[in-house]
Design a protein that fits this description.
8 strands, alpha+beta, 4-stranded antiparallel beta sheet, 2 domains, disordered N terminus, Mannose-Binding Protein A, Chain A, single chain, 239 residues
């Protein structure tokens, strides 16, 4: 093998090794460093023995590579992991920060709580609940008449047709009571006027907002329910 070619090859492999040292996963890096070390050793051995790339030489190099892998395995693994463990904090912190819920900007505040609308043409109950959980909160309670009036005003400024909204309240079929998200009995209800609500068949409550009336409905089950949005609630952050 030509000496200049061998030197250039070794230099290229060294640069590649440095690049991988800072950009790869530990398992990939172990494998790569092993291959780099093995190939470098095999090239130098081939040069010393001045063998050509015939069948005999290929078999010789294969034998050398197999032996070298076994010798280098433990050494390379220790070296790589020691290098990586010197500075693990940045990557770990990044993952943890991404997992933390982000408190959304409020569409409005009421009684020290933050309320945020999420709208869609069609939204399932599972999608609504997931949307609120991703923002670090839950589907909203309605606390009193002033509160529901704020909700209705905000929706009517945006929507001019019939609008169904998921909220966090439920109807207890056994006690005939409306419950907040945490199971506490609500002191306020507003069933849709001039209707047969609450019905004795379903616990899910949605809020319907029409141009001329508004109120709570419990006419459908969770698996079949859809809405045009959800109202999420989070504790207000005091800065």
């Amino acid at each position: 093998m030509d000496m200049n070619l061998h030197i250039k090859t070794t230099r290229v492999m060294f640069v590649i090794e440095l690049m991988w040292l800072f950009k790869t996963t530990p398992s990939q890096l172990v494998i790569h460093l092993a291959l780099v070390s093995v190939l470098s050793f095999a090239l130098s051995t081939a040069e010393e023995n001045t063998c050509s790339l015939d069948t005999e030489c290929v078999e010789l190099m294969k034998t050398i590579v197999d032996a070298r892998v076994k010798e280098m395995e433990s050494e390379i693994e220790n070296r790589v992991w020691n290098r990586i463990m010197d500075a693990p904090t940045v990557a770990t912190d990044t993952v943890l920060n991404e997992a933390k819920p982000v408190v959304p900007e409020c569409d409005f505040e009421y009684e020290g709580k933050c309320f945020k609308f999420h709208f869609a043409d069609v939204m399932s109950f599972a999608e609504a609940r997931s949307q609120c959980e991703r923002s670090g909160g839950h589907m909203a309670n309605i606390y009193d008449r002033a509160h529901v009036d704020m909700i209705v005003d905000a929706i009517r400024k945006r929507e001019h047709a019939n609008f169904f909204l998921f909220i966090g309240m439920t109807y207890d079929l056994n006690s005939d009571e409306v419950k907040w998200h945490n199971g506490t009995t609500s002191s306020y209800t507003r069933w849709y006027p001039q209707s047969n609500f609450p019905q004795k068949t379903h616990g899910l409550i949605r809020l319907i907002v029409l141009p001329f009336a508004t109120g709570m409905l419990n006419n459908i089950g969770i698996d079949d329910a859809n809405a045009n949005g959800v109202l999420c609630e989070t504790p207000q952050v005091v800065e």
